[in-house]
Amino acid sequence: MNSSQNKLCVKNVTKTFSHDITAIQNISVHIKEGEIVSIIGPSGCGKSTMLDLIAGLSLPDSGDIFLNGQSIVGKTGKVSYMPQNDVLLPWRTIIENVTIGLEVQGMKKKEAKIEAKQLLPAFGLEQYGDHYPYMLSGGMKQRASFLRSVLCKKEVMLLDEPFGKLDALTKRGLHEWLIERWQESHFTMMLVTHDVDEAIYLSDRIYIMSHRPGKIIAEIKIRLEKDRLKRSITSVEFASQKEEILSILEGKSAAAFF
Ligand SMILES: Nc1ncnc2c1ncn2[C@@H]1O[C@H](COP(=O)(O)OP(=O)(O)O)[C@@H](O)[C@H]1O
Ligand SMILES: [Mg+2]
After folding, report:
1. What are the two backbone dihedrals, phi and then psi, of residue 109, each rounded to the nearest 5 degrees?
2. Which alpha helices (DSSP H) does 120-195 contain, by range?
3. Which end of the chain is more exposed for a tag (fewer CB within 10 A), N or C?
């Protein structure tokens, strides 16, 4: 695999924590420009660890990570990152919360607010800029967190279980909304999720990880319509891909590769 052909490329990365906990072992994944790729794996298998490494928040023991062919190991600010359990600061209004990333990048507060305000309508938050987080529903808070990541305007977005805590209906609405945003700008996205339906609905490809030490045990190409809004979670094709993924996760099937 030529790392320069991919937008993002994680190559043979291993990360061990103290007390000999190997969180991930020799992981290689890649993502092409405009692709949505999901990572599925059991709890504790190292998914968040991998995103932290890509975001430059921690260093691997070995291996390399490339963005546009350039190593980004240990470099922060290269990708947008919505971490697991991303929280809005309760003492800041929504507009002040979503502009945090821009302020960290050195933009003046006033300019950051002007920029953020323009995007509030597309995120369904037009009336809520001056509200505080406690005044918003769960789905609205997730959209605000997502807007905070989008405003950082990086070429790659990493989302760690962004819809994890939401009820099924709110989640479904956000999936459609996310795809509409993606159809407008075709950002490149890596999504960590526990939800197999969500992964199939949103992704071009899915990587499946093993229990700790996390390794990639399969790479599944989604064979459904390219247009996500036409994908039906009740179709035979959807069920067949779900079966394929669940059988690998449950250890009933040989991995698709390795
Ligand atoms: N900072 C840390 N120090 C020690 N162990 C850690 C640290 N971060 C994560 N781990 C351990 O590494 C493993 C992978 O964690 P994590 O990446 O959060 O898994 P996942 O996101 O797949 O649930 C877990 O066993 C976790 O306890
Ligand atoms: Mg995690």
Report:
1. -55, -45
2. 138-151, 168-185
3. N
- Region of 178 please: left (phi>0), alpha (psi -120 to 50) or beta: alpha
- Ligand 1 near 15 CB (within 6 A): no
Cα(134) to centroid(ligand 2), Å? 24
Picking from 195, 218, 194, 215, the residue whose alpha carbon sits closest to that of residue 206 is 218
Residue 48 · residue 212 · CB < 8 Å: no
Find out whether the beta carbon of 46 lies less than 6 Å from any atom of ligand 1: yes
Query: Tens digits of per-residue pLDDT, 34-68?
Result: 999 999 999 999 999 999 999 999 999 999 999 99
Neighbours of 11 (CB within 10 A): 19
- Ligand 1 geometric centre to CA of 199 (Å): 22
Q: Is 210 in the pocket of ligand 1 (CB under 6 A)?
A: no
User: Which residue has tokens 């190991």?
Assistant: 73
List pLDDT tens digits, range 23-39. Answer: 999 999 999 999 999 99
- Residue nearest atom 20 of ligand 1, based on CA coordinates: 44
Furthest-apart CA pair in the chain: how many Å?
56
Q: Is 48 close to ligand 1, i.e. is its CB under 6 Å away?
A: yes
Residue 55 is predicted with a pLDDT of 95
Q: Find out whether the beta carbon of 213 lies less than 6 Å from any atom of ligand 1.
A: no
pLDDT score of 256? 40
In ligand 1, which atom is closest to the CA atom of 24? 14
